[in-house]
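During the second year of the project, the team shifted from modelling isolated chains to modelling whole assemblies. The rationale, set out in the original proposal, was that interfaces cannot be judged from single-chain predictions alone. As a representative example for this report, we include one of the complexes processed in the last quarter. Its constituent sequences, exactly as entered into the pipeline, are reproduced here:
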Amino acid sequence: MLRVREDAIVTAVNRLLAEKGYDLMTVDEVAAEVGIAKASLYKHFSSKEALAGAAMIRVLDRALAHTDGLERDATLTPLARLHATARWTMQVQLAGEMPSLPAQNSALRTALSANRDYLDRLFALSDRLGAWIEAAQDSGALDATLPAEVVLYTLFARACDPVLGVLKAGGQHTDEQIIDWVLRSCFRGLEARPPG
Amino acid sequence: MLRVREDAIVTAVNRLLAEKGYDLMTVDEVAAEVGIAKASLYKHFSSKEALAGAAMIRVLDRALAHTDGLERDATLTPLARLHATARWTMQVQLAGEMPSLPAQNSALRTALSANRDYLDRLFALSDRLGAWIEAAQDSGALDATLPAEVVLYTLFARACDPVLGVLKAGGQHTDEQIIDWVLRSCFRGLEARPPG
DNA sequence: GTCTATAAGAGGATAGAC
DNA sequence: GTCTATCCTCTTATAGAC
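Output from the structure prediction step:
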């Protein structure tokens, strides 16, 4: 029962973080969406920061599970795995399931940097992507003149790229069309490629 | 005198928006930084949203002035002008002078979409960049399979790309080195280019 | 136009009964 | 563990004297 209730809370937090972001999400809203009193919510999570941490842990676990599947598929190149991962993050974002945290909120960052369960997963995902990035650079598929950390941060940033939401809000294109464009602009750039 | 005082207010708002973002910036902080009482501030600007609008107008005017210079330089190709514009926005961001507004705050977006002075400048800049984008696509310099709006939104998004701040926070690289990497990843992509 | 003082309300967190 | 009721702080905005 406790696990089910906490899952419902994290689901609500995840959705609200994706919809309004951390600063505009209120604990009252979370409680209302779950259908419990705010005081009950605080019996499960000690603070608003802890709620955000739980949502981030859930999405990181989903990402790690997805990369597990990619790692097991031996037919994929490292570049193909990175492509697939970026595509997955964009699908999650367009589905309204990507919690977005402000980079500027220092109280939140302090709390997250003390959250071991969150950090473990963040490092695990970074390690896995970092290995793929270096392999892709060694094979000549990724630009080896870019530091691996630049590529890694860029992929994380594209997971919450506002361009996706703006294009979706325009209402002129399908989700898959939007993802194709943003994915292509990320990996192949805005400039034209020489033919061939 | 009034103009000087309001300039000082906008400068403070601009800096605080760049540092903490809209939601975490308080009107008390703005007043304290200018060195006046909060009530005096409200004699100049009617709301927090109006303050944000004034800061956006200032940075858009700076951008328009910069693009004026690029337009006048007849030796530049459209692609070179877009490069220079993106580089300029990244320099502004790393200098701590790029106000960043949350895409999710609907009260703010409502106020901005009723701010004619802001919209005029946003459209003027979009039109100028849009013309360069189409010219660069026609000449084969930019990927013509990407809709011009996708390119435009991507350039606006890179102006507040969090990757810049994360790399700067690492403290390992100079601003110019960081800008070179992010600019290259934007225009030429993460993938390696075929030699030649 | 500047100030001090304060209204009005939102929001995070807790007390204490059941 | 759930509830109602409440505390307390922060924040936007305004009143009213000078």
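Chain A has ten helices and no strands. The radius of gyration of chain A is 18 Å.
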